[in-house]
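Propose amino acids for all 250 sites.
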């Protein structure tokens, strides 16, 4: 088995004359938490969209878990365990926490969430859903509609639904966006916990979170790789300090 789970080579995406991602080489090692950082407009989310096949690259290649997925479809790579979250919480607000996770658990079977299916069939997912909710600290909120959860707990629920898809590689897009200090601390601990036997690629603006969680960091500027290394290494890089960290709250 290769020591890396994801590798891009020369990955680029152009929109007309604008180059959003420019010749990016990225290697994500199995078991790492790898952060992708950079100023606004650096190309981070476009990279995520390319890796998860929501966009097709203009040039370059993407290898995931030993397979060339450069031209693969988004649903195919998701079924193969490359799963992402979004900046905006993607849970169903009027379903309970249990129902949200149960919905995600049905996806590998090819089923959809059908309210007219028998209670017995639907309850078949309950034990696994309850276990996942327990993993993210939501055991007390099984029957609570997602709309009634705090923002941080909605993020935890979203991570539970992501775990339900049995990810090999989790892509977290700004998991701390819009959170207060208490929620940031809770979700940081949660990400560390769920990363124990998984690989995570994370876009995050909160540099304290990046420093706390990341094994390796890639810094983007204007769509290209500016620097890569540990937090200690990139935080001392003069180009990084000028382009990003010097203008951000560390």
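Proposal:
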């Amino acid at each position: 088995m290769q020591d890396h789970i994801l590798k891009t080579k020369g990955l680029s995406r152009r929109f007309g004359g604008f180059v959003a991602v420019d010749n990016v080489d990225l290697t994500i090692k199995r078991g790492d938490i790898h952060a992708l950082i950079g100023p606004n407009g650096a190309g981070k989310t476009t990279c995520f969209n390319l890796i998860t096949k929501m966009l097709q690259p203009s040039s370059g290649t993407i290898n995931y878990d030993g397979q060339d997925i450069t031209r693969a479809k988004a649903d195919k790579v998701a079924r193969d365990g490359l799963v992402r979250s979004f900046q905006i919480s993607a849970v169903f607000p009027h379903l309970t926490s249990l129902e949200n996770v149960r919905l995600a658990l049905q996806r590998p079977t090819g089923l959809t969430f059908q309210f007219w299916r028998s209670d017995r069939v639907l309850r078949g997912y309950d034990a696994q859903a309850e276990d996942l909710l327990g993993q993210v600290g939501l055991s007390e909120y099984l029957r609570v509609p997602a709309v009634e959860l705090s923002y941080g707990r909605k993020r935890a629920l979203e991570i539970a639904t992501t775990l339900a898809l049995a990810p090999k590689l989790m892509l977290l897009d700004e998991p701390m966006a819009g959170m207060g200090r208490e929620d940031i601390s809770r979700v940081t601990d949660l990400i560390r916990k769920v990363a124990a036997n998984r690989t995570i690629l994370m876009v995050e603006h909160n540099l304290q979170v990046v420093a706390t969680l990341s094994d390796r960091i890639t810094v983007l500027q204007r769509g290209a790789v500016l620097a890569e290394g540990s937090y200690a290494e990139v935080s001392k890089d003069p180009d990084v300090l000028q382009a990003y960290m010097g203008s951000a709250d560390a």
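The two ends are 37 Å apart (CA to CA). The domain at 1-72+205-250 is CATH 3.40.50.300 (Rossmann fold).
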